[in-house]
Amino acid sequence: YRLKMQIVLIGLFGLLLVAVAGVTGLKATLSFVFTAMVLWKLFFPLLLRGYAPLATGLAIVALLTAVITFSVGGLNRRGIATFAGSMLGVLLTCGLAVRFARAFDLHGAVRPFAETLPYSGYYNLHLTDIFIASVFIASSGAVMDLAMDIAASMDEIKRKHPGIDLLEHVRSGLRVGRAVTGTMTTTLLLAYSSSQITMFLLFMAKGLPAANILNAPFVAAEILNILVGSFGLVTVAPFTALIAGLLYRFERREQRLESEAL
After folding, report:
1. CB-based contact 102:108 (threshold 8 Å)
2. Are 213 and 219 contacting, i.e. CB atoms less than 8 angstroms apart?
3. What is the pLDDT of residues 129-172, one digit of tens each?
């Protein structure tokens, strides 16, 4: 019976977040619980009822991104820039996932237990679309994280240097994005490849050539997962930097007009 220890572990994680980040950590804990409940009680049941996986997935990601970014970052320019940059990255990831899933000739059965679902009575599930939705949903957390880093950095830069011009402000955000993007893409590689470590061990134990391993549908699915998710990560940096720069530029213009009116 593992539920008691799972509750203990979740409680320790929440206490650690609050101890390290204070009120922000409490908001992050609540966001963590909210995300789990939305997936468990809303997204998964909607898929089982036959709702379109791509549209439903994008709607769920938009909901989670809005709740998390505005609760943690605040309902302000920083939060708006984080939300807009994140959603642009997610939309790009979704489009690339659709395009390359077809180019790779992949189907939804590359996910564990996917083939069991039709035999359980769910014949009308769009398994391929569910697989594609899993690609951009899996990367949405990292995309959101990177967008928040850049938006928060640009907010701090604007506070310290209110007179900074638009181009220099955007360049500063891009410089922050370059530093974070390099490590974040490696994070996706480690996370996805380690989750399938036994599969890679089996293929290598069988002595299969590298070309055969990379051409296997399960491996090709992970390659698509990693690279398409990385596209979203790389592009969210300029998206967020540009949006934040424009938002703070408009703020400065509004303040100037107000001062002239007075």
Report:
1. no
2. yes
3. 999 999 999 889 889 988 998 998 999 888 888 888 888 898 88
Mean pLDDT of 99-115: 87
The answer to whether the beta carbons of residues 109 and 127 sit under 8 Å apart is: yes
pTM comes to 0.84
Q: What span, in angstroms and rounded, lies between the C-alpha atoms of 72 and 83?
A: 11
Residues 248 and 242: their CA atoms lie apart, in Å, by 10
Residue written as token pair 């320790």: 12
Closest CA to 64 of 162, 158, 169, 141: 141
b/e for 139-165, b at 16 or more Cβ within 10 A? bbebbbbbbbbbbbbbbebbeeeeebe
Q: Are 140 and 59 in contact (CB under 8 A)?
A: no
Q: Centre a 10 Å sphere on the Cβ of residue 78 and count the other Cβ atoms it contains.
A: 25
Q: How many CB atoms lie within 10 A of CB 214?
A: 12
Query: What DSSP line would sit under 64-95, residue for residue?
Result: HHHHHHHHHH-SSHHHHHHHHHHHHHHHHHHH
Helical (H) or strand (E) element with 198:
helix 197-205
